[in-house]
């Protein structure tokens, strides 16, 4: 049997990188779509790169964009994928309040463009589609924990766009018999999580505070509760969904919930820092228990016009039907993230003390 | 004098809403994608064309809409624009998204930017519910089954989110099917009425239909635009299901139409598989209690009265044509 061909949109992102690694290890020929940028944006997949001048490559990148139908149709026609993983998106909730139209264009219409490309190219019988849906769909949660049957209540332009993407995927499955699945993924993190997402922002900042590269970490809603899993575990499930006999939608979560404050404490503990929280609301502050230095503070500009207070997934269906269970615990995930960010901070510190300039990469 | 802007004024609901608001003493303006080229036959049919100002603007064009808002400074905006055919949405899913979901977002963003206390009505649709085992209320989860319905669901949630995030006075009317003589003939109700009337006049043709087992809640459009207006007159912005509360099968509709003309429908109707949609809603039922309790609104006409009224208008139209020819 010839090797399977997969196409990943959003290959330069956290999930794209982990998924590409997984599929390559399974013998797939992996194609990815990346946006053109004046800056290099492939650092998460550098280790998978193969010189285009050698024969028999199984990792191939294409320039492209979910906002360009012509491009998607051409790439999909060229690649003739057995599986498409649509991971590309404007994936930041807070940014979606600032750029709602762009978010709708990429996340909602982008998904439709992928599905339409497959339909136009008459690949609906051949190509299986994974759509990256999100726990943000539950927003103002209607029940806890959330399952595949829990009604949606989106609370941001991001979630509204993803709601469109979810239902249009269901619709193309029902209308045209496509093998198309939604993975409703709860928050999933890793050392390569984007630096502006709260978990990575915390581990990175605390590591830098530890080394004296930064003074204070400013956060929004410390009470927000999330179900955090490891991205490496979650990409397994994306693949598993497309190997089933029937297409379906699945909640992927750990079933365990922590607050942002607890995440801070877990990450700090990993660095040997005890954090003492005092005060409430916007005046709440976290102090280093040893030095008394204020290392965590609330900045209202990180509040959202509409907050999602709590998310907790029930992954029973994925466990029973896909045999999927997350392997990484919350504690070991936090540990892995902190270790990686501490290494980066140490490198920066070393460069600085040796007289070299490093970037601080502020938000 | 209050002023209203109707985005998508040239359609069925835009025309009836124009008439209603004019009767209430509003200054009424509207938009159409191309005001010069559009036929405005609905506004003409209701004799209101001379009394409304129509601007050319696409609801996906931020600048164009902004200019219209600057000129008109409306107190109320009714968003009725958008590709409105479920069947067509399977062929034109992109355009459907643009005209239904992206345009709603565009209007909301414009209102957010301008920051004026404008009240906003958004035309949502019973299609969002999909099949309803129980009569749908405002709390029934959506289960859309067409690109049209998916786009409408997205527009519904965008309105809800902007209301909650920015405190806007914005309401979704989840309208079930509402008919009138102004429906174009590509809508099945008008297609049935028109064919039945021609058959009654001796055309000898056959009426071809897709799935006649589908169950719908059909109301009278002139009544439904009154519900839209009432939504914007309350103290708190909310979403409302607007329907008659009575559902019938399409075959019931057909039977009533032919019976109103003294005909037996079984003698004139064929069903064809190729007219079926890729995915369709079988049963659509509604519970409009909230509209009754809060808006004091209730549908006077249900399907049989809607059919009778449409048949009466169609016959007038046919005899007027005969006189002309």
Task: Present the secondary structure layout.
The complex is a heterodimer of chains A (363) and B (325).
Chain A lengths: L4 E5 L4 H12 L3 E6 L24 E5 L5 H11 L3 E4 L6 H6 L1 H21 L7 E7 L22 H20 L3 E6 L2 E2 L8 H13 L6 E3 L5 E2 L2 E2 H11 L8 E3 L5 E2 H11 L4 E4 L6 E4 L5 E5 L17 H7 L7 H24 L10
Parallel strand pairs in A: 1-2, 1-4, 2-3, 4-5, 5-6, 6-11, 7-10, 8-15
Antiparallel strand pairs in A: 9-12, 13-14, 14-15
Helix pairs in contact in A: 1-7, 2-4, 4-5, 6-8, 6-10, 8-10
Chain B lengths: L2 E5 L4 H12 L3 E6 L8 H5 L7 E4 L5 H11 L3 E4 L6 H6 L1 H22 L4 E7 L21 H20 L2 E7 L2 E2 L8 H13 L6 E3 L5 E2 L2 E2 H11 L8 E3 L5 E2 H11 L8 E3 L17 H7 L7 H22 L1
Parallel strand pairs in B: 1-2, 1-4, 2-3, 4-5, 5-6, 6-11, 7-10, 8-13
Antiparallel strand pairs in B: 9-12
Helix pairs in contact in B: 1-8, 5-6, 7-9, 7-11, 9-11
How is this structure best described in words?
The complex is a heterodimer of chains A (363) and B (325). Helices cover 37% and strands 17% of the residues of chain A. Chain A has helices at 14-25, 69-79, 93-98, 100-120, 157-176, 198-210, 231-241, 260-270, 316-322, 330-353; strands at 5-9, 29-34, 59-63, 83-86, 128-134, 180-185, 188-189, 217-219, 225-226, 229-230, 250-252, 258-259, 275-278, 285-288, 294-298. Chain A has a seven-stranded parallel β-sheet, sandwiched between helices. In chain A, strands 8-15-14-13 form a four-stranded mixed β-sheet. Chain A has a two-stranded parallel ribbon with strand order 7-10. In chain A, helix 8 packs across helix 10 (330-353). Chain A is globular. The model of chain A has no long low-confidence stretch (mean pLDDT 96). Chain B has eleven helices and 13 strands. Chain B is of the alpha/beta class. The N and C termini of chain B lie far apart (45 Å). In chain B, helix 2 (41-45) links the parallel strand 2 and strand 3 (53-56). Chain B has two domains: 3-179 and 221-242, Rossmann fold (3-Layer(aba) Sandwich), CATH 3.40.50; 188-216 and 246-283 and 301-324, UDP-galactose 4-epimerase, domain 1. Chain B has a seven-stranded parallel β-sheet with strand order 3-2-1-4-5-6-11, with helices on both faces. Chain B has a two-stranded parallel sheet with strand order 7-10.
């Amino acid at each position: 049997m010839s090797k399977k061909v997969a196409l990943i949109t959003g290959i330069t992102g956290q999930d794209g990188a982990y998924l590409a690694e997984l599929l390559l290890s399974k013998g797939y020929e992996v194609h990815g779509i990346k946006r053109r940028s004046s800056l290099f944006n492939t650092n998460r997949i550098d280790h998978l790169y193969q010189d285009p001048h050698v024969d028999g490559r199984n990792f191939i990148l294409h320039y492209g964009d979910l906002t360009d139908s012509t491009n998607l149709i051409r790439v999909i026609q060229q690649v003739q994928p057995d599986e498409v993983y649509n991971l590309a998106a404007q994936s930041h909730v807070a940014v979606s309040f600032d750029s709602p139209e762009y978010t709708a264009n990429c996340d909602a219409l982008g998904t439709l463009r992928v599905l339409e490309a497959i339909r136009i190219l008459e690949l609906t019988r051949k190509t299986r589609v994974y759509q990256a849906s999100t726990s943000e769909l539950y927003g103002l949660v209607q029940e806890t924990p959330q399952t595949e049957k829990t009604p949606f209540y989106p609370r941001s332009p991001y979630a509204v766009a993803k709601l469109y993407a979810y239902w249009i995927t269901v619709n193309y499955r029902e209308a045209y018999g496509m093998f198309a699945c939604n993975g409703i993924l709860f928050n999933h993190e890793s050392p390569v999580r984007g630096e502006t997402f709260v978990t990575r922002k915390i581990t990175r900042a605390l590591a830098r505070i530890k080394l004296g590269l930064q003074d204070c970490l400013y956060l929004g809603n410390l009470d927000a509760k999330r179900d955090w899993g490891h991205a490496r575990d979650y990409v397994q499930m994306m693949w598993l969904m497309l190997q089933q006999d029937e297409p379906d939608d699945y909640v992927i979560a750990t079933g365990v919930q922590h607050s942002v404050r607890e995440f801070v404490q877990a990450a700090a503990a990993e660095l040997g820092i005890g954090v003492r929280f005092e005060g409430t609301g916007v005046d709440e502050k976290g102090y280093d228990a040893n030095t008394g230095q204020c290392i965590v503070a609330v900045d209202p500009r990180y509040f959202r016009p509409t907050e999602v207070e709590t998310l907790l997934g029930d992954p029973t269906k994925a466990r029973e039907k896909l045999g999927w269970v997350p392997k990484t615990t919350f504690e070991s995930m936090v540990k892995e993230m902190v270790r990686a960010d501490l290494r980066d901070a140490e490198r920066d510190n070393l460069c600085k003390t040796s007289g070299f300039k490093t970037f601080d990469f502020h938000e | 004098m209050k002023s209203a802007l109707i985005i998508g004024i040239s359609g069925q609901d835009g025309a009836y809403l124009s008439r209603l608001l004019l009767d209430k003493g509003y200054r009424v303006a509207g938009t159409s994608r191309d005001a010069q080229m559009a036929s405005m036959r609905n506004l003409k049919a209701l004799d209101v064309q001379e009394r409304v100002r129509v601007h050319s603007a696409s609801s996906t064009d931020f600048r164009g809409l902004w200019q219209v808002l600057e000129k008109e400074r409306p107190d109320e905006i009714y968003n009725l624009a958008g590709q409105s055919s479920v069947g067509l949405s399977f062929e034109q899913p992109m355009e459907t998204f643009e005209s239904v979901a992206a345009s709603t977002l565009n209007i909301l963003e414009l209102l957010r930017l301008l920051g004026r206390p404008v009240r906003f009505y958004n035309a949502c649709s019973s299609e969002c519910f999909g099949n309803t085992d129980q009569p749908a209320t405002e709390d029934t989860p959506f289960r859309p089954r067409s690109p049209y319905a998916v786009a409408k669901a997205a527009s519904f949630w965008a309105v809800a989110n902007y209301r909650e995030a920015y405190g806007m006075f914005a309401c979704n009317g989840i309208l079930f099917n509402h008919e009138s003589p102004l429906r174009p003939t590509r809508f099945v109700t008008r297609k049935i009425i028109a064919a039945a009337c021609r058959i009654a006049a001796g055309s000898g043709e056959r009426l071809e239909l897709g799935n006649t087992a589908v169950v719908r809640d059909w109301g009278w459009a002139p009544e439904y635009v009154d519900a839209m207006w009432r939504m914007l007159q309350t103290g708190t912005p909310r979403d409302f299901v607007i329907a008659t509360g009575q559902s019938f099968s399409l075959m019931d509709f057909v039977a009533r139409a032919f019976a109103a003309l003294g005909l037996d429908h079984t003698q004139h109707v064929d069903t064809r598989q190729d007219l079926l949609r890729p995915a369709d809603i079988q049963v659509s039922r509604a519970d409009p209690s909230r509209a009754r309790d809060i808006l004091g609104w209730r549908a006077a006409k249900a399907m049989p009265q809607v059919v009778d009224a449409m048949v009466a208008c169609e016959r007038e139209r046919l005899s007027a044509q005969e006189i002309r020819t």
